[in-house]
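I'm curious: can you give me some protein's one-letter sequence along with its backbone structure tokens because I've never seen that pairing?
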Amino acid sequence: MNTRRKFLVTASAAMSGSAFGSSLFARQTLPNSNESKKVPTVSAWVNATLLPVDKPPISGGAIVVQDGKIQAVGASANVAIPANATIVDAKGKWIMPGLICTHSHIGGAGAADGSGPIQPGVRVMDSINVRDSGFRRALAGGLTTLNIMPGSGHLISGQTVYCKLRYYESSPRIVDEILIRDQNGAPVGGLKMANGTNSQGDSPFPGTRGKSAYLVREQYIKAREYQAKVVAANGDASKLPPRDLHLESLVEAMQGKRIVHHHTHRHDDIMTVIRLSQEFGFQTVLHHVSEGWKVAKEIADAKMPCSIIVLDSPGGKVEAKDMTFSNGRVLDEAGVKVAFHTDDWITDSRLFMRSAALAVRAGMNRDKAIAGLTLAGAEMLGLSDRIGSLSVGKDADFAILNGDPLSVYSHVLETWVEGKKAFDLSKPDDQLYAEGGVNAGSDIDPFLCCFAPAWQGGAK
């Protein structure tokens, strides 16, 4: 009997025995993915080059972390290190806040379907695969927080969700373990909207830009009317309108409870977003804005931040043909807050720092560009009180590099999330996600007959 058949027969016999029912289907205690191996509650890194972002760089700096929070930051000579702290000499290393991607699609996220162009009540949270290897690759790039979005094929494609990459000794088992929550324990996220060619199509989708704006305006008017009825009911259930999840989501946007993240490229589409936002009062972050440089003054006057994408290869949609590396510089100089995003896979999360480097090469202020990877993104997600800078009291999310983050020769050595190590380049498994190779893009080994070293003629 050959090796493969012998294995399958043995496995089949084991499954048919009484032990199968009593062990495999018995209630099991699964490891908590948020537990890392025991480490001291206080740790300090000294003699590093610190990039706090909200203050000037510190040469020979120290950072103290306790119970997942930053306790002290400053020059090593001026920071009191607790007696019980584990001290790490980080001489020659650079430490910066964990990177924040304001626009990611990691996790196979999906929301609205082909039944209509406006589906704000759909939640991307209900479709995220936390075992997606993309999360590990993001950590290899120094990322610690993601705004996971549905796609841009709809005028309103659903609710986004903000996530922390809590991948420690083992991956999270369920999406709940990576959610960022508000003070009441509810998941925090925004609302994804889009215009331009992505959301155009055959009926019921709009065929023109004018019809696109009309359909959005129509739904927000309905949402206003819906909210008026809710207020008029004054808690009387008999007077409440039938619950509408789509309209509820739009009401949340108009109330400022849900930030609108708006895909838009052309300058005329950008102006349409500004008009709609001002008409209905929803807080908006403009995403992509390939032609933002053409209307930088108007964007600044509207006080709208921009999350931009920087590509270093040709191709893509016709709408982005006038995109330029100087977009970040022009917007910043006009007074617009600028952050970067990956739109992963459009830009690989492992190469996120390259976006800021290319913007600086095109003339953008260096400090503003680094903030565009960190603090500016935190502000656009409404999370700057918790993440985005190396500041006392904030979450201990940071990346340790072997050099300047804008240098092509620098590598992320470690990524820490809430005071726990989530990526370590010195570990073979983590190095695999950082550099690629066999199994780097696979969530698990292929099942049974599809894979075995002996059958493949070599080691894994």
Confidence is low (pLDDT under 50) at residues 1-36, 451-460. The chain has 13 helices and 17 strands.
